[in-house]
Amino acid sequence: MQDGSNRFGLLSAVGILGERNSQMLSEFARSTQAQVGAILSLTFIAIAVFAPLLAPYAAHVSDFDEILQGPSAAYPLGTDELGRDQLSRLILATRVSMQAGVMATGVAIAIAIPLGLLAGYLGGWLDRAIMRLVDVALAFPFLVLAVLMAAVFGPSLWNATFAIGLSQVPYVVRILRAETLSIAQEEYVASARVSGVPTTTILRRHVLPNLMNTLIVQATIIIPSAIIAEAVLSFLGLGVQPPTPSWGVMLSSSQGLITEAPWLVWAPGLAIAAATISFNLLGDALRDVLDPKTVGRR
Amino acid sequence: MLRFLLRRLGESAVALFLASVVVFVAAQAMPGDPAQTIAGFEGADPAVLQAIRDRYGLDAPVHVQYFRWITLALQGDFGNSLRTNHTVSGLILQTLPVTIQLAVMSLAFAIFIGLPLGAIAAYYHGRWPDYGANVVATLGLAVPNFWLGLMLILLVAVNLRWLPASGYIPPTESILGNLERMILPTIVLGTGFAAAIMRQLRSTMIEALGSDYVRTARAKGLTEKTVVIGHAMRNSLVAVVTVMGLQLGLMISGAVVTERIFVLPGFGRLIIDAVFSRDYPVITGVVLVVATAYLLINLGVDLLYRVLDPRVRLDQREV
């Protein structure tokens, strides 16, 4: 027990982390769930980063003598209809999923920060206008948004991810606005205001840093749902386009081969489920530490 | 209640108007010249193109075009499919029953599985039935539904040959054939909801079972069944309705995916096919109908919520 708090106590001593944060981090590090979640999530990220080094074969290279081979020593997960190594494609597809998770989170947070902060801090008609806009955005089911994006700009990973991120904006805005409202009541914000500090500086220096925990919690909610959403869109053909390997694309092409090559169906689905569970574990543990109030949302 | 209803209706109307503007703008931004598309081929005679533009008012200012489009849409006229020349409303009416059947069956499945599991987990809180139900729910939420669909096809249809893998038979033709083909899609779409319902009921019911009114009910000597089902569970159902409302958006994307996997000729198939064939009237028509349905169902959930929970009604009056 003592050991955990010392580890991060050093960081707080050199001023990298505040006392409260170091306490929370050590609490976090002691939880088994957090450890398992962190190790698994980092593994997925590492696979994504080092994918080309880890993959035994190049993902696009076909070997027409090895079409639809079952799992073997040379091809642990078998080969697909073009004689491509399934394991290599699975590894490279990890990149697409992690990219989708990170980019969707980035889009959602980048758009939500200014909206949530301004609505919460300035209030008045701007607040009402932003919140009404948020209500309207909630009236658009996520898939409808993705369909419109694909219809107007063409199907691609970026457009799919943008739609995923955009669909999360209303939720993040609501939470940031509520947090900003309460931070704006704090004395240090009030004293900064009366001493004539410009609003943008107050928001940047006093409000935003206090929202960090909230943003991290939001990211842990968005990443796993974005991974699933990307797979769904790519499965439907609205996301990543073949021949780029993606778990959704791999599942989609495996469907037609389900009788001849059932092994192709297993791996991508298990990968999606494992990645989602990993990031959810990490997120749940982080949420317990950072924000006891958060209620789950999907 | 009436004031709330009116305000909520007004909000929905505003949201719907803005949604229609977004759909219209998106349609305008979609690549391709509509006059070319109507003419049917590239490089048509400029005079012909001009005649088409005049006839369909394509040169009119944008707001005039919007007004014309929305007036027709409100009368149920979304234009004709560019691909098949069927009316869009006809296509919608043809596909909608399939999706509604799928949605209703999935919801029934989710309630049938989710409620008992949640109640059992809450009643045996911290013991093995609770852990078991929790593992099932966690898996139900984490397993992507399209993968579940493929695995079910592999197991039930390909290996065991118990049910057909895909396809659709209208119930008017054969009720048995219809149900046979709807069982797997129902399970695929319903599993996630069952898990969500189970988790929500479990957590609210655990709280309810520890509350004063349940203790009082027990002290009064009511049977355990009445206490658990009549009191604790009944009061927890409000939260379940809320969760079901929140899951609605997922229901829509889930239905699209499920229809794609099982080759069901529903709404989802219609819109995905339309995106790939760049059939803009179909896209805008379907999107508008989906957004409307979504808003109306949300409104319904909101009202149901207020009817079910007297406390919410009271709050509303005090404000």
Write structural notes for this entry.
Chain A has one domain (31-294): MetI-like fold (Orthogonal Bundle), CATH 1.10.3720. Chain A is mainly alpha-helical. Chain A is built from 13 helices and no strands. In chain A, helix 1 (2-13) runs antiparallel to helix 2 (19-30), helix 5 packs parallel to helix 13 and helix 11 (212-236) runs parallel beside helix 12. Chain A is elongated, with a radius of gyration of 22 Å. Chain A has helices at 2-13, 19-30, 32-49, 51-54, 86-122, 124-138, 142-153, 157-184, 187-194, 199-207, 212-236, 247-255, 263-290. Chain A starts with a helix and ends in an 8-residue tail after the last helix. The model of chain B is unreliable at 314-319 (pLDDT under 50). Chain B is 79% helix and 0% strand. Chain B is mostly helical and 319 residues long. Classes of the chains: A mainly alpha (298), B mainly alpha (319). At the A-B interface, helix 6, helix 7, helix 11, helix 12 and helix 13 of A face helix 1, helix 6, helix 7, helix 11 and helix 12 of B.
Count of helical segments of chain A?
Answer: 13
How many helical stretches of chain B? 14
The largest β sheet of chain A comes out as: none
The percent of residues in helical segments of chain B reads over 70%
Reading the helices and strands of chain A in chain order gives: HHHHHHHHHHHHH
